[in-house]
Specification:
This protein has seven helices and no strands. By secondary structure, the protein is mainly alpha-helical.
Length: about 100
């Protein structure tokens, strides 16, 4: 999938994100970049992924996040067969990086 995404525009987006230094800067940038619904969907997926890595059951995840079971299944598929991006982030968060 990564090769399908790679182009100059995506590189520019990711380079831009990597320049952000604080949570407040992230709020400003992402609020300008995305709609509220897009941001809520993205943040929901990250929380779902975290809960799945903690071995939480679907019913608990639905109750805590409001995510549909279809969304939870898609995130679970990414955790199992994706590029490992969630794992990188969660490991670094756990280490306090």
């Amino acid at each position: 999938m990564t090769e399908k995404l790679k182009d100059a525009n995506m590189d520019f987006l990711f380079d831009s994100i990597l320049k952000l230094e604080t949570r407040e800067e992230c709020y400003k940038f992402f609020e300008d970049l995305c709609t509220v619904n897009e941001l809520k969907s993205i943040s929901q997926r990250v929380v779902v992924a975290k809960m799945l890595t903690e071995k939480r059951v679907y019913s608990d995840i639905v109750a805590a996040t409001g995510a549909s079971t279809a969304t939870i299944s898609r995130v679970n598929r990414s955790l199992s067969y994706g590029e490992g991006g969630y794992d990188i982030v969660f490991e670094r968060l756990q280490k306090g990086e």
